[in-house]
C-alpha cells in the first residue's frame, strides 16, 4: 500500500516515470495483494496521461480481464469509456458506461458520471430515443445537479431529432418562463429549428430573429450568427432570396462574430446571388 501511495503521489505531480516505477514495483514484488489491480490502474493512467492511448486501452482492458470482480473495475470501465470517447469511438465508450449502470450497486458514486456520459455517447451514435429516456431518468435522479437546465433543453432537442416537432416546441416553450436572456436565446433558437424542420419557415424566422436581441455574452455556440444563418436558410426555402441575402449580410456586418462565420456567410451570399442569376 505504501509503494502504491508513493506511485499515486508522483502521478498527481505528473511525474510519470517515477509513478510507473512504484506501480511496477507493487505488481512485481507483491503479486498476491489487493494493491496489484490498483497499481495496474495507475499504470494505465500513466499511459493515458502520457498520450499513449493504444497502450492505455490495452492496460485498462487487461485489468478488466484479470480483475473484473475487483472493486476497482467500475472505475476502470469509466476511465476506459472516457478514453474511447476522447478517441471518438462512441460504441465501445457507450458499452463501458452502460456496464457501470447495469451493475450500479457496485459503484453508486459513479452512476451520475456514467449516466451523463452515456447520454453523450448515445447522441453521438444517433440513439436519440435511448438518450431521451436516459435524460429523463437523469433529471429524476439528480434534481440538484446545477447543470440540469441543459438536460431540460436537451429533451426538447431530442424530441426534434426524433421528428416530434410539435412536442419539441411545447417542451421548449415551457422552459421560457424561468429563463434568463441567454438561456432564452438558446431555447428560441431550438424552437426555430423545430419549426424549420417541420416546414413552417415563417414561424421559424420569427423565432430565429428574436435570438440576436437576447444574447448578452459569448458562449461556446454563437447563437447570433447561427440564428441569422438559419433565418437565411428559411427565406431560401420560401424562395425569398433577397431576404436570405440580407440575413447573411447581418452575419458579416455584426461586430463580435468570428471571421469563420463571416467567410461562410459571404459564400452563402455568392451562392444565392449566382442562383438568382440562373433563375433569371
Would you summarize the structure shown here?
By secondary structure, the protein is an all-alpha fold. The chain contains 15 helices and no strands.
Q: Structural class, judged by helices and strands?
A: mainly alpha
Q: What separation lies between the terminal Cα atoms?
A: 80 Å
Biggest sheet architecture = none
Q: Approximately what portion of the residues adopt beta-strand conformation?
A: under 5%
Give start-end ranges of low-pLDDT stretches: none
Q: Tally the helices: what do you get?
A: 15
Please tell me how large the radius of gyration is: 25 Å
Quaternary arrangement of the chains shown? single chain
The general outline is: elongated
**How many DSSP-defined strands?**
0
Query: What is the average of the pLDDT values?
Result: 96
Topology order in helix (H) and strand (E) letters: HHHHHHHHHHHHHHH
Amino acid at each position: 500500500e505504501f509503494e502504491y501511495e508513493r506511485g499515486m503521489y508522483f502521478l498527481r505531480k505528473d511525474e510519470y516515470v517515477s509513478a510507473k516505477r512504484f506501480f511496477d514495483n507493487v505488481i512485481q514484488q507483491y503479486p498476491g495483494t489487493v494493491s496489484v489491480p490498483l497499481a495496474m490502474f495507475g499504470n494505465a493512467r500513466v499511459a493515458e496521461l502520457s498520450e499513449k492511448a493504444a497502450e492505455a486501452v490495452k492496460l485498462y482492458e487487461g485489468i478488466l480481464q484479470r480483475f473484473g470482480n475487483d472493486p476497482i473495475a467500475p472505475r476502470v470501465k469509466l476511465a476506459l469509456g472516457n478514453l474511447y470517447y476522447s478517441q471518438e469511438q462512441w460504441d465501445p465508450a457507450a458499452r463501458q458506461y452502460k456496464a457501470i449502470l447495469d451493475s450500479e450497486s457496485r459503484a453508486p458514486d459513479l452512476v451520475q458520471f456514467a449516466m451523463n456520459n452515456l447520454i453523450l455517447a448515445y447522441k453521438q451514435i444517433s440513439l436519440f430515443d435511448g438518450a431521451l429516456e436516459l435524460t429523463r431518468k437523469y433529471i429524476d435522479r439528480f434534481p440538484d445537479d446545477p447543470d440540469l437546465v441543459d438536460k431540460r433543453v436537451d429533451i426538447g432537442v431530442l424530441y426534434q431529432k426524433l421528428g416530434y416537432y410539435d412536442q419539441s416546441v411545447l417542451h421548449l416553450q415551457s422552459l421560457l418562463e424561468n429563463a434568463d436572456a441567454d438561456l432564452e436565446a438558446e431555447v428560441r433558437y431550438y424552437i426555430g429549428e423545430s419549426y424549420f424542420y417541420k416546414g413552417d419557415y415563417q414561424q421559424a424566422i420569427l423565432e430565429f430573429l428574436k435570438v440576436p436581441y437576447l444574447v448578452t455574452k459569448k458562449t461556446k455556440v454563437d447563437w447570433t450568427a447561427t440564428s441569422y444563418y438559419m433565418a437565411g436558410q428559411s427565406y431560401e426555402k420560401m424562395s425569398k432570396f433577397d431576404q436570405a441575402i440580407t440575413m447573411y449580410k447581418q452575419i458579416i456586418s455584426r461586430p463580435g462574430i468570428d471571421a469563420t462565420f463571416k467567410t461562410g456567410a459571404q459564400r452563402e451570399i455568392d451562392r444565392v446571388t449566382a442562383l438568382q442569376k440562373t433563375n433569371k
